[in-house]
Amino acid sequence: MGDQSVVRFYLEKHSATNLSINVIETPSEGRYEFGTIDMIDLGIVDMATFQIGQVSKVGGDAAFQYVKKVIELALAGDIDATVTNPLNKESMNLAGHHYAGHTEIYADLTGTEKYTMMLADGNLRVVHVSTHVSLREACNRATKERVLDVIRIADKACKNLGIENPRVAVAGLNPHCGENGLFGTEEIEHINPAVEEAKAEGINVFGSLPADTLFSKANGGMYDIVVAMYHDQGHIPLKLLGFVYDQAAGAWQAVQGVNITLGLPIIRTSVDHGTAFDVAGDWSASEVSLENAIDYAIKLAENSK
After folding, report:
1. What is the pLDDT of residues 273-296, one digit of tens each?
2. Is 14 within a domain?
3. Is the Cβ–Cβ distance between 138 and 233 less than 8 Å?
4. How many CB atoms lie within 10 A of CB 100?
5. What are the tens digits of pLDDT across the range 55-113?
6. Is residue 206 part of a domain?
């Protein structure tokens, strides 16, 4: 999904003569052959005037329209899964599409009310009670109802990945899970009651657990998935593992991990990094996270059949 003008521009710029483009109207028309790029051309971007690596309305509109189209194809059953690259949120909002990110677009266009973001890299899988909100707002959103919903979604996601009896670990919100109310009462009032209700439903759940040691345990294999209370609590440990910067080389040695939207009626996986406007168009961006996302999409699609 995209614009053939953009793809042709880069194929010519980098002399990629071993690749060809096959413009199609529907997925059923694809050749699906090595060396052939099957693509639905939306014809939005004019490379004669487009500014590479810059915030722009046309770039934001194109990114949104590509995502919107693949969602429509998935809802219609024309494709089994969707995989997205990063989009620039400022550009998208500049174009009049007022969303915080991919997750919110998918939720809105599929009519999904209960959803969450999952990040995955190796043994570590993390879902979030809240994501793109202020830290103050994130604390307010750590309610019993929301935590319970995310525990249920996490359990189902692991089963969809082929894990028969998932071990779901729930992080605390406060340092040391509040120390019985000394450092906060969210665990007592909301998080622990949600865990107990999930246990009563038969979910193999543990918590609340101190976040400062929980992620190391999960990465070591003690748990199959972690329920994080807010964006950075879950993102930092996962990206610390998946993103490796080489100071001597002045470049990223590894950028890996997958972003999956759970709770949707369709499959959506994505890379776990941003648009990297600073290296846009120079052929140096890492493809590893995209490959991870494609692999996860295939696995989820196979298990859903």
Report:
1. 778 787 887 777 778 888 889 988
2. no
3. no
4. 13
5. 999 999 999 999 999 999 999 999 999 999 988 999 999 999 999 888 889 999 999 98
6. yes
- The angle, 0 to 180 degrees and rounded to 10, between the axes of the packed helices 102-110 and 57-75 is 40
Amino acid letter, residue 92:
M
Whether 254 is covered by a domain: the verdict is yes
Boundaries of domain holding 186: 81-303
- Single-letter code of the amino acid located at 231: H
User: Residues 274, 275, 277, 283: what is their CA dihedral angle, to the nearest 10 degrees?
Assistant: 110
Cα–Cα distance measured from residue 72 to residue 40, given in angstroms and rounded to the nearest whole number:
13
CATH no. for residue 292? 3.40.718.10
What one-letter code names the amino acid at 206?
F
Determine which helix (DSSP H) or strand (DSSP E) holds 126, and give its type and residue range: strand 124-128
What is the rounded distance in angstroms from the CA atom of residue 252 to the CA atom of residue 235?
18
> Are the CB atoms for 2 and 69 separated by under 8 Å?
no
Tokens linked to 274 = 């941003």
Is residue 108 within 8 A of residue 209, CB to CB? The reply is: no
Q: How many domains does the chain have?
A: 1
Structure-token pair, residue 11: 């194929």
Q: What are phi and psi of 195, to 5 degrees?
A: -60, -45
Q: Which amino acid is at 119?
A: L
Whether 140 is covered by a domain: the verdict is yes
Residue 107 CB contacts under 8 Å (≥ 6 apart), including other chains: 113, 115, 261, 263, 264
Residue 3 near residue 41, CB atoms below 8 Å: yes
Contact 83, 293 (CB under 8 A): yes
